[in-house]
Design a protein that fits this description.
By secondary structure, this protein is mostly helical. Helices cover 51% and strands 6% of the residues. The chain binds carboxymethyl coenzyme *A (CMC).
Length: 431
């Protein structure tokens, strides 16, 4: 492996170059030596949307899209979803190993101690318009956390970094729950440290006048599993935003807010909300074939289908389908499931989707579960952002510790005007 090389002949000059390969990849900077003459800048690689460019090395998540494999720190996602709590998985992603019982206890205690948010931030949230989108509230309030913790900008101090990571993990469910209560005009519920991570979140969401909200254990576990499945997904759009913004050494709150912004788009995390809208638009199972025909004719996309990396069934979607069955035992079946199953059945047989290797992704079934549990569609992406914060922070930390990383600054192929003179002077400049 070590001595693998690539030989390139430049047909413009007839010169041959031998470039070393690094972990099966060519280093783009090695292309720079390929020049037509001393004035030539050197060869660039052109890769809009990073279709074939590794922008970092990472030891966090392994994803084989052709075979439908997803692992966090080497552990198959199926095992983590079945056997772990979300906070165990968060510890694993951030530290590389699963915690032992004492470490888990200490870790859960630390995260729990940081669930409260400053009253100033609560007042800040009260200023949002009644129909503000919860994802927009979350993005803004996470950015506002940097006004409360100015020391967070010392990103090179490992202890400061660690504290901000714990703060963000602790406060995300609180901010998410407050954004939800705000949109319903309900008073905010303070965190309750008697509960674990997801139960505390459910308490802050649903508590009314009772002293403590008692979450159904099946629904609480379903949410925990969904959190585990969403915790990281290597170099997706929002993680790339986290790394790119973080590479300028911005503080972790500003950086996480940028990642939330990226996640909110309908091609990324916002797709779960769009899936529900699509199922509403289709309305009934018998209208599925007509809807598919419309997509094939080039009118829109089947939301919750397709993925840049998975060219096989998304393993997370497979687990979510199982979780859906457990949730529906408690909540009753969401009638939208029948429409979704019919969409999947037809799409998986249809040549248009088969040829393009379009399979259901994580967002296809998650929204149906969230709705059955009682969430409105505008909360779905917020439910994605809470656990993904762990992945963003693990990737941010890894990026800061990687000696090869620098400020993210891609090149471009300039396609504008060549140099030109601003003559003759116009009447306006003469006046
Ligand atoms: N419905 C219909 N056609 C599709 C779809 C879809 N959902 N996705 C891709 N295609 C077609 C696309 O039009 C193209 O066709 P052609 O070769 O004829 O031009 C072909 O499949 C390849 O697609 P692409 O756009 O080159 O693929 P991409 O890797 O750039 O896009 C994607 C990936 C996820 C943005 C895209 O599949 C999509 O827009 N899906 C719908 C939105 C969605 O579900 N997003 C959630 C992604 S998973 C979770 C997450 O990341 O948040």
């Amino acid at each position: 492996m070590q001595n693998e090389t690539l030989t390139i002949t430049d047909n413009r000059t007839g010169k041959t170059y031998t470039l070393p390969l690094y972990k099966g990849a060519v280093r783009a900077i090695d292309l720079r030596q390929i020049k037509t003459g001393p004035e030539d800048f050197g060869l660039l690689s052109y890769d809009p949307a990073f279709l074939n460019t590794a922008a970092c090395q990472s030891a966090i998540t392994y994803l084989d899209g052709e075979r439908g494999i997803l692992r966090y720190r080497g552990y198959p996602i199926e095992q983590l979803a079945e056997k772990c709590s979300f906070l165990e998985v968060a510890y694993l992603l951030l530290n590389g190993e699963l915690p032992d019982p004492a470490e888990l206890d200490a870790w859960s205690g630390e995260v729990t101690r940081h669930t409260m948010i400053h009253e100033n931030l609560k007042k800040f949230m009260e200023g949002f318009h009644y129909n503000a989108h919860p994802m927009a509230i979350l993005m803004t309030t996470v950015a506002a956390l940097s006004t409360l913790y100015p020391e967070a900008r010392n990103i090179h101090d490992p202890e400061v970094r660690r504290l901000q990571i714990i703060r963000l993990l602790g406060k995300m469910p609180t901010l998410a729950a407050y954004s939800y209560r705000h949109s319903l005009g309900l008073p905010y519920v303070y965190p309750d440290n008697d509960f674990g991570y997801t139960r505390n979140f459910l308490n802050m969401l649903w508590k009314r006048t009772e002293p403590k909200y008692s979450a159904n254990p099946v629904l609480a576990r379903a949410l925990e599993v969904l959190f585990i499945l969403h915790a990281d997904h290597e170099q997706n759009c929002s993680t790339n935003a986290m790394r790119a913004v973080g590479s300028s050494f911005a503080d972790p709150y500003a950086t996480t807010a940028a990642a939330i912004a990226a996640l909110s788009g309908p091609l990324h995390g916002g797709a779960n909300e769009e899936v529900l809208r699509m199922l509403d638009e289709i309305g009934s199972k018998d209208r599925v074939p007509a809807y598919i025909a419309q997509i094939k004719a080039g009118h829109g996309k089947l939301m919750g289908f397709g993925h840049r990396v998975y060219k096989n069934y998304d393993p997370r979607a497979r687990i979510i389908k199982r979780v859906a069955d457990e949730v529906f035992e408690v909540t009753g079946r969401n009638p939208k499931l029948d429409i979704a199953l019919e969409l999947e059945r037809i799409a998986l047989e249809d040549d248009f989707f088969v040829k393009r290797k379009l399979y259901p992704n994580v967002d296809f079934y998650s929204g149906i579960i969230y709705q059955a549990v009682g969430f409105t569609p505008d909360m779905f992406t917020v439910l994605f952002a809470i656990p993904r914060t762990v992945g963003w922070l693990a990737q941010w930390q890894e990026m800061l510790q990687d000696p090869e990383q620098k400020i993210a600054r891609p090149r471009q192929l300039y396609t504008g005007q060549p140099v030109r003179e601003r003559v003759p002077e116009t009447a306006a400049t003469l006046a």
